[in-house]
Design a protein that fits this description.
Keywords: Signal. It is a single chain. This protein has about 325 residues and is mainly β. The protein is built from 3 helices and 19 strands. The chain is globular and about 55 Å long.
């Protein structure tokens, strides 16, 4: 099934590129101009994980790093956000389900402490080439929980700039793209850019430049949705665009933050992360804190169908 889906997606991209050439229209989510003009270049898939494998198995070590503990070695405590869980590599928290999905499941132990999971790609070189486009996408079912039972849940699909790995003290200047964030089981997806300096700066840290909307059709919690981000360097003003199920709901361009800040956040590689935090300082200017209570119900997973990265001019790996 996953092989058929991959072939279908590649056929669709080729068809869209052909249609664009015939009609002289450029569709931003499927094509990119190499130099801001001329013929559009199709996006090529450079990374994909469909999470195929036996039930209970971990994500493939060749593609993913499993973060554990309460911080990076020598990095900010509680992952820099005040979240209260401990990340583990236990299959109780992180596992393939045998049906082509990855599950990340928060658990509460007998003493009331929380565990969960967080992974990040081995690769840190996902980038939009000069004059091109990068698209990062995942199909995700957020934890299916709402109301008082959802208090404290903070699922996320996001990126960090490559220079963060091994440093851990250069945020937010290296850029953070929050492609999908949610908190407390609210029917909304948030897309946020973090950049510049903190507090304040061009990205209004620690809030970031964000927007949100309800998920189309089914609620965010009750079904799978496709969450995507495009970094477009093909036009006269470079920009980031956020999508849910193909519908754009947020954008930030280089003019909004300044050329130097933009280069620092966009003109280099990023790595991709997936996690479910419990508690923590979800930006106050966006949605308030995520705070578990005695009513919070453990054991509700975030389910990830696939993650893909596409780039104009890239080669599949």
């Amino acid at each position: 099934m996953h092989a058929l889906r991959r072939r279908w997606r590649r056929s669709l991209l080729c068809a869209v590129a052909a249609l664009a050439a015939v009609s002289a229209l450029t569709l931003p989510s499927a094509t990119a101009g190499e130099d801001g003009g001329g013929d559009p270049a199709p996006l090529a898939e450079v990374f994909r994980d469909d999470f195929d494998g036996a039930a209970g198995s971990p994500p493939d070590a060749a593609d993913w790093i499993v973060d554990t503990g309460t911080s990076y070695p020598g990095g900010p405590a509680n992952w820099g956000t005040g979240e209260i869980q401990t990340y583990t590599d236990s299959p109780e928290n992180l596992r393939k389900d045998g049906n082509g999905n990855l599950t990340i499941t928060p658990r509460r132990d007998a003493s009331g402490g929380w565990t969960s999971a967080r992974i990040e790609t081995q690769r840190t070189d996902f980038a939009a080439p000069a004059g091109g486009v990068m698209r990062i996408e995942a199909r995700i079912h957020m934890p299916d929980i709402t109301g008082a039972e959802a208090l404290g849940y903070w699922p996320a699909f996001w990126t960090l700039g490559d220079a963060y790995r091994g440093n851990y003290w250069n945020w937010p200047g290296i850029g953070e793209f929050d492609i999908m964030e949610n908190v407390n089981g609210v029917n909304s997806v948030w897309g946020v850019l973090h950049c510049g300096t903190a507090p304040g700066g061009p990205c209004d840290e620690n809030n970031g430049l964000g927007a949100s909307r309800a998920c189309p059709g089914t609620s965010c919690q009750s079904g799978f949705h496709e969450y995507a981000l495009e970094l477009d360097r093909s036009g006269p003003v470079e920009e980031l665009r956020w999508y849910v199920d193909g519908q754009q709901y947020h954008s930030v361009n280089a003019d909004q933050v300044g050329a130097g800040t933009w280069a620092d956040l966009a003109h280099h590689g990023h790595f991709v992360l997936l996690n479910v935090a419990m508690g923590g300082a979800f930006p106050d200017g966006v949605a308030g804190h995520a705070t578990p209570t005695d009513a919070t119900r453990p054991g509700v997973p975030m389910v990830v169908d696939y993650v893909s990265v596409e780039q104009s001019g890239g080669a599949a790996q």
